[in-house]
């Protein structure tokens, strides 16, 4: 009797508390192979933020369109030249320094009176996050700082670019081991399922009490309760996914090797950021999530870059260079280093095959800072790069010079449209999509 060795497409490799899908194998049979080959890879949204702006003369490129010359800061991107669009003349409509400008990077509006708005990554996550274990991930390298940045605005608000509501921000996970566990530790063990059921029971009681309280609350308190209930619903969805993982319309065609990081935050600045980049790529490659944001540092960062030759000042200090040669050199060297980390990310994404296209081809990647020159907190002509092809709906244009005063929100509108979210404005700002990116 001939024995069949076919296995199911959704077969997992399991380790100590870890489960990950296998790549497409012949042993999975022709039906599974055909289904996987015929499925179209999803579009991912990735944001990489770096703080404190750039020195304009070292960022700005010469030439327009494909015929441009890399600037000193952007030269590390030469190997991905055909995959990027450098955008000039995008303006941040928030003002008032690091806190407001950082929080506006993905919201457009910035913090005002301790309120902001839902960020672009979270709007997209609500649209596409239902098919993955995690609707989005938010990673970083620095914890929130304490104190005020002027006008009573807490510096901690500059710790993130991700907001789920006007009053609720997502603090980035900065510990690589904790991020790894959240993304890849299996949630299907008996103990994990028991904990999820217990947690769901508690949430049921919380929801009943909150709804009863809402009926007696003032208009102002109802608003606060609604935001609270929304966060509870989000937790409920996470628990439901743990107990009943969603069926997926697309499966990754490759499986990376999983290595759990050590239970510590690396002291080395360069190693820490590279580790977070690698974890983000891993989450996207395995379809653990389709929306990811990375804070390379706090928006008011005073990180030390003494590991770079000739750099002795902290990043925020050198950004207020006052046109002094030594500070400008250090400022430019740090900005160039950030660009090299972005290049590393793009090359990693470009090297991952998804049925003939790369993960980068199937992504929209937004990179940059929320201010131009840190010396004056300039909000005009932001340093912004868009990478990837969004599944063929974006054709990288080299250097695109927009009309002066184009709102950053127009880029937000353009990106959300790529994910099937219609509209000509974002959080009440902007006046339409960017034509050069809307093919």
| Tally of domains | 2
User: For the largest beta sheet, what order do the strands appear in spatially?
Assistant: 7-8-3-11-12-6-13
In N-to-C order, the SSE pattern is EEHEHEEEHHEHHHHEHHEEEEEH
Query: Which class of secondary structure composition applies to the elements?
Result: alpha/beta
Structural summary, described in words:
With 439 residues, the chain is α/β, with parallel strands linked by helices. The chain folds into 2 domains: 351 residues, Alkaline Phosphatase, subunit A (3-Layer(aba) Sandwich); 56 residues. It has 11 helices and 13 strands. A 7-stranded mixed β-sheet has the order 7-8-3-11-12-6-13, with helices on both faces. A two-stranded antiparallel sheet has the order 1-2. A hairpin with a 4-residue loop joins β1 and β2. The longest helix is centred in the C-terminal third of the chain and has 26 residues. The termini are far apart. 38% of the residues are buried. The N terminus is likely disordered.
